[in-house]
Design a protein that fits this description.
alpha/beta, GMP Synthetase, Chain A, domain 3, 4-stranded mixed sheet, 12 helices, globular, disordered N terminus, AMP-dep_synth/lig_dom, Phenylacetate-CoA ligase, ligase activity, ANL_N_sf, ligase
């Protein structure tokens, strides 16, 4: 057990308490958070969950939801608490606040990937100290004064752009607040700035980073690209997509997984494996009945904010699909390793359950050598069709063979495609916000 006492700070500053625990455990075991022994991480997590649930009870929402339940002192006790679902927290900022209004420093809106009223998330000043990124590894959220970092992610009412912006400045690097999809910063201007200023790091979504590379090559044909590091989030991507992005930009590629509601949830290591940001959140994988699943089994992602002072969330059932890997990662990090499969609402109807759209993306990019990631899958009452651009450099006579190969390969993953509809180059949507990879037009029962 950790032989130390959590300092008596003001109750809303629960983040300081958690930061103290991380520092104390790190000193005790002589290893940084990413390399703690499993028993140390479990001890920290139990203490962090107890503090976080106790703080969440200050909100009207959780005071009612948890009622007279005893605050859990172990992970097993914690996992008996009820889930929180996205629909329950929409439009309920004040009910969710676990601090007074004058202790609130910032409010953001969720990106709205599900229908209905808006979800608002509130942060205290302590919540904004790194926004969970401070425990991510060097090379993902770490910068030096020579860096010029373009943040091509949403700023307008969103969390992610401002969060990374603050981290860049906090570490002494220079930030270019590019945004994504805004009227003042169109992608053409960003490409110009990348070339003229020598941007070294680009934070963006995979699809937008590809689009920027496409534009760069059109505006500056034959010119070298200055970006050395791509840091990608907000969307998933197939392995071949990530490899091609790195080659196209001549840059290293790392990813993170997060949400407005929770913050940073996981980040990728040098080997491309996601690791849970265990100082910022607690992640569970559950089955359809809400019970825990063994490592190596795909299930639903459930996350809990650790140390959130403004709007804490307890056992938030997001609808994402993932698996905690049973084998340790070869990078040496001991944090839980994770593989993502996308949102439950984006899963394609397969013979044995949902199939990730990124299976289709991987198959497309492997089957057609010059294919670019401009595609979507249409679900109608009559079947499932992949719609994708046919590359200009590829002979049209090869379309039938490519279609046959794609249909056969995705069938192995359990998805029955009725065919592929090839579009002319440049005719499908380019990303201004999140890409819609699945377009569900079914009217009958699901």
């Amino acid at each position: 057990m950790l032989e130390t006492t959590v300092p008596q700070v003001s109750e809303p500053d629960v983040r300081t308490r958690l930061d103290y625990l991380v520092a104390a455990f790190t000193t005790q075991v002589g290893r940084d958070l990413e390399h703690w022994p499993a028993e140390t991480l479990a001890e920290y997590t139990a203490a962090a969950l107890e503090l976080s649930v106790r703080h969440a009870n200050r909100s009207a929402f959780y005071a009612e939801r948890l009622g007279d339940r005893t605050v859990p002192t172990s992970i097993a006790e914690f996992q008996r608490l009820p889930f929180t679902y996205p629909a329950e927290i929409k439009g309920r900022l004040r009910d969710l606040l676990a601090c007074s209004w004058d202790e609130l420093a910032q409010v953001n809106l969720s990106s709205g990937t599900t229908a209905g009223p808006t979800t608002y998330v509130g942060y205290t000043a302590a919540d904004l100290r790194g926004d969970g990124a401070r425990y991510a590894p060097a090379g993902l959220f770490a910068f030096d004064p020579s860096d010029l970092v373009a943040v091509a992610l949403p700023y307008d009412m969103a969390t992610v752009g401002l969060s990374i912006h603050r981290d860049v400045q906090r570490q002494g690097a220079v930030v270019l607040p590019a945004g994504k999809g805004g009227s003042y910063g169109p992608p053409e201007r960003l490409v110009q700035a990348i070339a003229e200023l020598g941007v070294t790091t680009l934070f963006s979504t995979p699809s937008f980073a590809w689009y920027l590379a496409e534009l760069f090559e059109q505006v500056f044909p034959g010119a070298g690209k200055p970006i050395a590091h791509l840091r990608l989030g907000g969307e998933g991507a197939a392995p071949t997509m990530l490899t091609r992005l790195g080659l196209r930009w001549g840059a290293t590629v790392r990813q993170w997984y997060g949400s407005t509601e929770i913050g940073v949830i996981a980040y990728s290591c040098e080997q491309g494996t996601y690791h849970v940001a265990a100082a910022n959140c607690f992640l569970e994988i559950v089955d359809a009945d809400g019970g825990p699943v063994p490592d190596g089994t795909i299930g639903a992602v459930v996350t809990t904010t650790l140390g959130r002072g403004g709007t804490p969330l307890i056992r938030y059932h997001s609808g994402d699909r993932a698996v905690l890997l049973a084998e340790p990662c070869g990078c040496g990090r001991t944090l839980p390793a994770l593989r993502m499969f996308g949102r439950a609402t984006d899963q394609l109807p397969g013979r044995d359950g949902g199939v990730s759209p990124y299976v289709v993306e991987e198959t497309l990019l492997r089957a057609v050598a010059d294919a670019e990631p401009w595609y979507h899958v249409e679900l109608t009452d009559t079947g499932t069709t992949l719609v994708a651009e046919w590359p200009a450099a590829a002979p049209a006579t090869e379309q039938a063979a490519a279609t046959s190969a794609i249909v056969q390969q995705v069938a192995v993953a359990g998805l029955d495609l009725d065919g592929v509809r090839w579009a002319e180059p440049g005719t499908l949507d380019r990303p201004r916000t999140k890409m819609r990879r699945v377009r569900d037009e079914r009217t009958g029962p699901r």
